[in-house]
Amino acid sequence: MSDRYHAEDLCRLATTLFERAGLEAEKARVTAEILVEGDLLGHTTHGLALLPGYLDGAASGSMKGTGLPDIVSRTSIVETWDGMRLPGPWLVQKAIAIASPRAAEAGIAAVAIKRACHIGCLAAYLRQVAERGQMVIIASSDPSVGSVAPFGGTQRIYTPNPLAAGWPSPGGPVMIDVSMSITTNGMTNRLRNEGKHFPHPWLLDGHGVPTTDPNAYFADPPGSLLPLGGTDSGHKGYALGLLLEALTSALAGFGRADAPKEWGASVFVLIIDPARFGGGEAFLRETGWMEDAVHANKPAPGVERVRLPGERGLALRREALEKGVQLHPSLPGMLKARAEAAGLAMPNAV
Fold first, then answer.
1. I need a surface site. Which of 88, 94, 134, 285 has the fewest CB within 10 A?
2. What is the DSSP secondary structure assignment for residue 151, as one 8-state letter?
C-alpha cells in the first residue's frame, strides 16, 4: 500500500494545479475537494485518479475554466442548464446549492445539466445534503462514450450510468452509488494497466463471449461491459441503464443523438425535503427502524456485520481524516510528476 497524506494537503495541491491550468479559484477549489472526497470515501478510481484527465482537458480547452452555465429553461422548482463544458464537480455543487433551498420550500427541486465535464465520484456529493435533513438523487451519463451493450447484444451503446442517492438516518447518512454495469471504465483501465483480470466474467468480448480479461474491451472487435446483473439478470441493469439515459441526456435535451466527441456528462440532480412530505421526524422514525433492522440482522457465514450502504465509505473517511488518505499505489507517482511539472512540491506523507 502507498503512504498516507493529509487530505488538506492533497486539496491544496490539486487546487493549485487546477488554478494554474486556468480554472477560476472557486472552480479549482470545488473540483479539488470533490476529487479528494472520492478518495476519502474509498472510490479510488474516481478520486484523484481523474486529475490527469481533468488537467489535460483544461490544457486542451475541452474543459472551460471560466464562466457560468447558460440557463436553457427555468420554473420555480426546475432548471435546465447548458454546462458550457465547465468543470462537472463545480456545476453539480452549484446545482445542489440552488435546488436545496427550493426543495425546503416546495418539497422538491431539480436541475438537469447538458454539456458538463466529468463530475467525478457521485458519492462525494451526498453527505452534505443528507446531513441537513434532505434527500438527494444524482444521475449521470456520458453521451460521447459507449461502454455497455444492451442485454442480449454485443455492441456497446451507453456508459455505466451511475445513480447515487443519499438520505438522513438517525445513525448518519445512508449513501448509495451504483453503476448500471457490473464494473466501470476506470476499473477496466486500471486492471489492464496492472496486467490483472476481473475476479468474474464481467465483460463480453467482441463476439459476445463472457470474459475476465480487460484487454477484450480494447480488442478488435471491441468488447463491452456487462449490464448490472451480468449474463443471468442483466436485463434488469440494462433497463435501469436506459432509465438513466432518459433522466440525464433526454431530460437535458442533448445526448447521443447529437454525437458529441468530448469526454463529459449529462447530469440530473434532484433534492427532496422530507419535511414537506410526511415530516422530518416521521422520515427519521422510518429510516431509523430500517437502520436498526439491518444492524440486528443475523450475518451470513463469513460476514462480520450487516451494514447500511455508505457505512464503510464513511468509516474510511473518518479514518482518513484522522490518519491520512490512503492513496492507491498508482497515484503518488502521478501526483508528484504533475506537481513537479508545475513547479510545485509533492506533499509530505503523514
1. 285
2. T
The Cβ of residue 178 has, within 10 Å, a number of other Cβ atoms equal to 17
CATH topology of domain 1-67+310-350: Hypothetical Oxidoreductase Yiak; Chain: A, domain 1 (1.10.1530)
Which is it for strands 265-272 and 135-141: parallel, antiparallel or unpaired? antiparallel
Average pLDDT, the chain: 97
What's the pLDDT score for residue 158? 97
Rounded CA-CA distance 68/90 in Å is: 10
Give the domain ranges of the chain.
1-67+310-350, 71-182+226-296
% of the chain exceeding 70 in pLDDT: 99
The whole model's pTM is what? 0.96
* Helices and strands of the chain, counted as H and E runs: 11, 12
Looking at 3.90.79.10, 3.30.1370.60, 3.40.30.10, 3.40.50.1980, the CATH number of the domain 71-182+226-296 comes to 3.30.1370.60
Which grid coordinates belong to 297?
A: 440482522
Q: Which amino acid is at 324?
A: G
- How far is the C-alpha of 17 from the C-alpha of 216, rounded, in Å? 35
Q: Is the dihedral of CA 61, 65, 67, 73 positive or negative?
A: positive
Three-class SS of residue 292? helix
pLDDT tens, position by position, 90-123? 999 999 999 999 999 999 999 999 999 999 999 9
| Residue-level pLDDT at 1 | 54
Q: Does 42 have pLDDT greater than 60?
A: yes
